[in-house]
C-alpha cells in the first residue's frame, strides 16, 4: 500500500503509513536497532516541518525497501501518539542560517525523545550504544541505589539480589524468561530454582551482552565499554551482543570481562571480590590510585591522588559505609595526609617529610 503523509499538521497522528501485512506479528525483539534509529530520524524530519516533495519520496522509498523498516516505523508511530511536542513559533527576524540551525536542533530533539521511547523495551541494546539513552532507559527501573548506598532485595522467584553503590537494574519477569537489565553499577545475584515448569532461563543483560545463569551465584559490573563477570558458584554462559553465535561458559572460581564482540580469557576469581556486599572494601596490595578510585564510587565529590604517591600499596579492609573513616585509616597506615580543600574536593598527598 502507498504510505500517506500530511506533514503540514501539528498532530503526530497525521504522520502515518498504511502498514503492510508484514508488520503483523512482529515484536520489539524482531526490530533491528539500526532500523529503529532510522525510523526515529525520519519521524524527526517529517515532524519538524519544512518538508519538500523530494524528502517525502525518499521516506516512502525507505519505508518500502525493507520489512524491518516498516516494523520500526509502526513502533515509532505507536509510541509517538503519546508525545506533545511543541512547535517553535516562527520568527520574522533572523537569518536563513539561524532558521536552519533551529530546524536541525528541533529534529535532533525529536529524534532523541522518540528513539529513547521506541527502544525502552530494548533498553540493554540501546544503552550499550549511547549512555544518554542508558539513563533514559533506566528511569523506570525497578531497583536502584544512590551513591554510597548498598541494598539487598528478594525477587519474585526467590532470587536474592545485592545492589552496589549507584546502581540501576530492572527486573523483567514473564512467563518465558527471568530477565535483569543492568543499566549501571554492579550487582551480585544468588539465583533461586524456578517454580515454573519448564523452568524459565535466568538472564542478566548489560550493555555488552547477555549472561545466562546455569544454577549459580555471580557478580556483574558495568564498566566503560566492558562488562565484568565473576562466578562464585555454578556456571554462566556469556553471549556478547555483536557475537551471538559465539557464547562461552565461565565456570565457578573464574572472572572475566567482555566487550560487545569478544570475551577475555578467564582469570581466577579474587576471593574478596564480593566483599562490598558486607560493607567492606578489601585491598590486597592494591596501588593507592586504584584504591582511591574504588573508594570514590561510594562518596560524592572529587577524591584525587597526588601522582607522586599513586604507586603506594594498600592492604587491609576499609568500611564503605563511612568513607571519611576509611581515609583516616589510610592516613594511619601510609605516609600520606588527606587534604580537604572543600568538603566535596579531597586530595590524598604525601605526608610532610615523608619519602614519596
Return Rg in Å: 25 Å
Helical element count?
8
**Averaged pLDDT:** 80
Shape: globular
Percentage of residues in strands:
25-35%
In the predicted model, the low-confidence regions spanning at least 5 consecutive residues are 1-29, 82-93, 120-136
Distance between the termini: 76 Å
In total, the number of strands is: 19
Task: Name the helicity range.
Answer: 25-40%
Run of helices and strands: EEHHHHHHEEEEEEEEEEEEEHEEHEE
Give the biggest sheet.
12 strands, mixed
Structural class by secondary-structure content? alpha+beta
Characteristics:
three-stranded mixed β-sheet; 356 residues; 19 strands; disordered N terminus; alpha+beta; twelve-stranded mixed β-sheet
Describe this structure in words.
This protein has 356 residues and is of the alpha+beta class. The protein is built from eight helices and 19 strands. 28% of the residues lie in helices and 30% in strands. Strands 3, 4, 5, 6, 7, 8, 9, 10, 11, 12, 13 and 14 form a twelve-stranded mixed β-sheet that branches. Helix 1 crosses helix 3. Strand 11 and strand 12 form a beta hairpin. The N and C termini lie far apart (76 Å). The chain is globular.
